[in-house]
Amino acid sequence: MTEPGRREAAKGAGAGPPPFAESWDEHAEWWRTTFTRGADREYEIEIIPLVVRELGGHGVVVDIGCGEGQVARAVAAANGCRVVGVDPSHLQLANALEKADPDLAITYLRAEGERLPLATGSVEAAFCCLVIEHVADADALLAEAARVLAPGGTFLLVVNHPVFQGPGSGFVDDQILDERYWRVGPYLVEQWDVEEVDPDVSLAFSHRPLSRYVNPLAERDLVLVHLEEPSPRMELLADSIDPEFESTIPRLCAMRFEHRPRVFP
Ligand SMILES: C[S@@+](CC[C@H](N)C(=O)[O-])C[C@H]1O[C@@H](n2cnc3c(N)ncnc32)[C@H](O)[C@@H]1O
To answer: Which atom of ligand 1 is found nearest the CA of 128?
Structure first.
């Protein structure tokens, strides 16, 4: 039985959040060379186009957890908007500034998503791409996203699909029973894993069910208006022993919310 899966190398698990902000400074160089500037096919052909497409044209957009700024640059270039990239990692932001382009309207701020240094109702759109899994207080980050959005604004949340990519989930090739299937782990259990994603690179990921994202936003009048679960492209499944089957299991889940403040008579 083999089980290749994103979470195959988990080194530890538990409910409490581990320290994480430091590790992004420590691994900024690894992130830059492995996942940005065209190095990662999934970002190039799937993730960045998805964010650009879902956001459409907006005046001011905040990128919560912007990292090295690759998504911010694409959004600013494609949609002609002003982007404010926010990230707590000094070295991620240093790499973003290294790629600064005078033709793009991007400003970077060093801050956590749980405490955005932006005025209430000041932005038309916000997005958070593959970040919230690394954040201990997801509720605080979601509350801040809702706070800074103007009425009618858009919030795009992109996560690794919690149903299929959580701890204990993955492709199973059972050669004794001659079955291939996708095993789903304990979906409702919120937990932290520390994954060795590359030799000498360990990152903390939290698993939360979808309701932990959708409901706190609904309580703040952010209504889910679109859900995107892209089928992984064949090109990304070159190492799979059953790409046809794996193309039926989404890796990503992108949720687009609209800020629709309730009006009381
Ligand atoms: C996987 S990277 C994604 C970067 C970028 N969004 C992208 O898709 O290229 C995760 C980023 O989340 C940032 N991060 C970690 N904790 C955060 C927090 N509390 N608030 C905002 N960003 C955070 C890290 O510094 C890192 O840059």
So the answer is: 6
